[in-house]
Each structure stands twice: as C-alpha cells, then as structure tokens.
C-alpha cells in the first residue's frame, strides 16, 4: 500500500450540523500524524474546479460548534460522468492528494467509491440529518436536527394548546422517516406519518376523535416529508373533526444551528477514525456506528446494506400518543 502523505477533505450533499466538527477532527488528527491536509471547497465541484487550499491547525479553530460547513457543500452532477471523474483524479495528482475524506450521505459515498476504484483511496463519513445511511446506526447531524425540530414543535404546541387546534408539522428526512419518528415521539405527537408505514387518513381522524372524547384539547401530528401533503391533511382533519387545523413545514431551519454535544462527539470520534484508516493506506471504507461501537465497512458493501425501520419504536409512539 502506498504511503499517504497528503489527504483531501470535502463535504458533499446536504449540509448537516456537525460537519464543521468533523472537518476539525480530520484536520487535527491528520496533522498529528504528520499528514498534510488540503481542504476541497464545494464537495466534488472543488475537485473538478481545483478549488483547493492547504489547511493548518488554526484553519479549523472556532468551528466545532457551528452549523453549516466552512468548506461549503454542493451537488455535482458532472462528477458522475467519466470526464468529471478523470478531471477530479487529475486534480488530486496535481495537488499531491493521495487520499480523501468524504463527509456526506450515500450519494457522496458513491462518488467516494468511484474515486477509490480509480486509485484515490477514500474514507466516507456519515454526515446527514436524515440518519438514512444503512451501514450506520447514526449519522452526524441527526441529533441536532431532531432537537431543533422538537424545539419548534414545542412552540407549535403552545399555540395549538391556546387555540385548541390540531397542528400538523412536516419534518425533513428525504425518503426516510427516522427524523420524523424520533421527533414525533419526543414531541408527544398523537400520530406520526412516515413513508415506511402504511396508514389511512381515516384511522388518524378516528384516533383524534377518540382522544378528544377522553378530554384531549389539542393535537400534534408529525409528518415525514416523504409522506408530505400536510395542507390537504389539515383541511381533511378540520372538515371531519371540526377541530381547527394548521399545517407547518419546518424546512431548512432543521439543517442549521449549533451542533449538539452528541453530534460534536460523534464528529470528533468518526473524523479521527477516518484518518487512522487513511494513515495506514486503507481506503474505499466508510466509518459507521454499530451498537455504540465505531466500525468500518467496504463502501461497496455499505451501499448494498438495507436499513431496518424502527417499527418497535413506532408502535410505542402510537400507543402512548393518545
Ligand atoms: P448525499 O451525499 O447527501 O446523499 P447526493 O445524493 O446529492 O447527497 O450526492 C452528493 C454528490 O455525490 C452528488 O452531487 C454527486 O456529485 C455525487 N454522487 C452521487 N451519486 C453518485 C454516483 N452514483 N456516482 C458518482 N458520484 C455520485
Ligand atoms: O438530506 C438532507 C435533506 O435536508 C433532506 O432531509 C431533504 O430532503 C433535502 O436534504 C433537501 O435538500 P435541499 O437542501 O437541496 O432542498
């Protein structure tokens, strides 16, 4: 295995709180091993456009807490073409980059796999608020996003309580319901609608009516963006129950804000682990958390894995959200 003297680090896909703490960990861990670090701006775009600069200990000062990413992020369709990929490899050669740390979701992992296959060993780190990467129990950004969403829904609850309304809130998660499920259970939702579980609107309406009969005066319904349709749902609930209903789409507020303790710690530990692999010349791997242990997998295998939905947690939420 060739010795790795210089690594590149980039953030790609949707940003997530904790990406900055991850960059910091990667830079500091690499420098501690005598490895030079090049920051690549705007994900794979920077590899194609040569938007690259050397990072030192102080270039990651004062960022551990901040949401967003100081390296910027982007989606880069050109990188999926052979021409774009070759350009990226030429850039790596030009800047002496022998390996890369890619912080992002599974789309970004596919790019990292393709680079690894073409001779630039990469290690992927899970950075997305969606927690939808199959090989890992946890993705950096999930905790902060959940806490932000719950804080927002607590506010919705205040106004729903005073108006005796039903508040229907859409949370992010792309095609996955993990963020909605955890947010919903923590916010005390009467119903949580996720793409992984089929539901009938009639059943939700019946549940609201049953709860109303027991004296419940206001209602929170959490809907994953993969289900959508919150405006229509609000209209239907209001029409069928007579309870005034309002829909809110939380949107990108969930992506910003200072990273939580959990995200900062996970970022630090995972970022460090990525550098340990690369420093041994090992690439084409992703870092993951499984049963509270940091592990790593071959990227190709990681991308084949399927993630279980937490049906038990969903059942608990359903039973106690009455
Ligand atoms: P995420 O990493 O959050 O899942 P995307 O799916 O948008 O986000 O992927 C981020 C970037 O990763 C894409 O813009 C593209 O540059 C790269 N990428 C995604 N899929 C592939 C692929 N199949 N092959 C190569 N690169 C890819
Ligand atoms: O993957 C993170 C995420 O925030 C998803 O939850 C959401 O579907 C998507 O990114 C939104 O992407 P954009 O920032 O391009 O609107």
Task: Describe this entry's structure for a reader.
The chain is an alpha/beta fold and 322 residues long. It folds into 2 domains: 6-141 and 259-304, Rossmann fold (3-Layer(aba) Sandwich), CATH 3.40.50; 143-256, 3-Layer(aba) Sandwich (Rossmann fold). Helices cover 43% and strands 18% of the residues. The protein is built from 11 helices and 11 strands. The chain has helices at residues 19-32, 44-49, 82-95, 106-117, 142-163, 178-186, 201-213, 230-241, 261-279, 299-304, 311-320, and strands spanning 6-11, 36-40, 52-55, 99-104, 122-126, 166-171, 191-193, 219-224, 245-249, 285-290, 293-298. The strands form 2 sheets. A 7-stranded mixed sheet has the order 3-2-1-4-5-10-11, with helices on both faces. Strand 10 (285-290) and strand 11 form a beta hairpin. The chain is elongated. The N and C termini lie far apart (59 Å). The relative contact order is 0.18. The mean pLDDT is 97. Bound molecules: adenosine-5'-diphosphate and 6-O-phosphono-beta-D-fructofuranose (F6P).
